[in-house]
C-alpha cells in the first residue's frame, strides 16, 4: 500500500488530504494533516509538498511530508493550557512509535511511523 500526493500547503489542502486518506485510520489522517499544517504555519501557504503514506516491513504505517526548506526544522514544544496552537507535533509524538527529519541539500522530509492496527 503506497499513497503519494503532490500539493500546495494551504488550509484548503488539509481537508482534501483527509479525504484522500479516508480509507486509513484516524491516527494516520491526524498525523498526516498535522505535518501538513506545520508546513503551512512555518513555511507559509503555497509551499509545494509531497505527502507519502506507506507500509513498512516492520508492520508500521509511515507518513512522510517533504518540503523544499531544509533549514526550518520541526520543534517539539510544550504548549500552555491557554495556548491556541503548538500541540500538533506533540500529538504526532504521542501517537507515533517514532518520528524524525531527513534533511537533503534542497529539501527535508518530516516523517512518523505508527503501529498498524491489529499488530
UniProtKB/TrEMBL annotation:
Keywords: ATP-binding, Kinase, Nucleotide-binding, Serine/threonine-protein kinase, Transferase
Any GO molecular function: ATP binding
Classification via InterPro entries: Anti-sigma-factor_SerPK, HATPase_C_sf, HATPase_dom
Record carries keyword Repressor: no
Pfam families, sorted: HATPase_c_2 (PF13581)
Domain Histidine kinase/HSP90-like ATPase: 27-111
SUPFAM superfamilies (UniProt xref): ATPase domain of HSP90 chaperone/DNA topoisomerase II/histidine kinase
Domain of life: Bacteria
PANTHER family named in the record: ANTI-SIGMA-F FACTOR RSBW, ANTI-SIGMA-F FACTOR RSBW-RELATED
Protein name: ATP-binding protein
Protein species of origin: Streptomyces guryensis
Amino acid at each position: 500500500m503506497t499513497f503519494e500526493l503532490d500539493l500546495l500547503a494551504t488550509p484548503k489542502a488539509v481537508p482534501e488530504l483527509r479525504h484522500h486518506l479516508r480509507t486509513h485510520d484516524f491516527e494516520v489522517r491526524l498525523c498526516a494533516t498535522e505535518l501538513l499544517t506545520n508546513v503551512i504555519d512555518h513555511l507559509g501557504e503555497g509551499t509545494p509538498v509531497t505527502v507519502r503514506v506507506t507500509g513498512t516491513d516492520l508492520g508500521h504505517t509511515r507518513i512522510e511530508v517533504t518540503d523544499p526548506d531544509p533549514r526550518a526544522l520541526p520543534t517539539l514544544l510544550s504548549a500552555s493550557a491557554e495556548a491556541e496552537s503548538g500541540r500538533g507535533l506533540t500529538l504526532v509524538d504521542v501517537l507515533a512509535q517514532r518520528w524524525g527529519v531527513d534533511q537533503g541539500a534542497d529539501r527535508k522530509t518530516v516523517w512518523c511511523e505508527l503501529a498498524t492496527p491489529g499488530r
